Amino acid sequence: MKEIMEKPYRYKNKLLEIIGERHKMSVAMLTYLFDGNFSSEEFWDLIEDYFLGILPKEIM
């Protein structure tokens, strides 16, 4: 703990990094969904793909 307090720039937390990346991806996906002019069927297909781990290339 002392080293972290003295050199916080060296501290890495992989779990928080992963959570941060997933959050960014979720925000990007929601923005894509609600800013896009998708039909109801397209919208739900995109939601289904998202939960299957398939992201649109525009998100990546």
Report on the architecture of this protein.
There is one protein chain. This protein has 60 residues and is mostly helical. The relative contact order is 0.11. The protein is built from three helices and no strands. The chain starts with a helix and ends in a 9-residue tail after the last helix.
What is the helix fraction of residues, given as a range? 55-70%
Listing every helix as H and every strand as E from the N terminus to the C terminus, the arrangement reads: HHH
Derived structural class: mainly alpha
Main beta-sheet strand count, sense and barrel state: none
Q: Which stretches are low in confidence, meaning pLDDT under 50 for 5 or more residues running?
A: none
Rounded radius of gyration (Å): 17 Å
The number of helical segments is: 3
Q: End-to-end distance, in Å? A: 36 Å
Average pLDDT level: 92
How many beta strands in the DSSP annotation? 0
Shape, principal axes of CA atoms = elongated
Strand content: under 5%
Strand-helix topology:
Blueprint: H1 2-6, H2 14-35, H3 40-51
In a nutshell, what does this entry contain?
This protein is 65% helix and 0% strand.
Name the descriptors.
mainly alpha; 65% helix
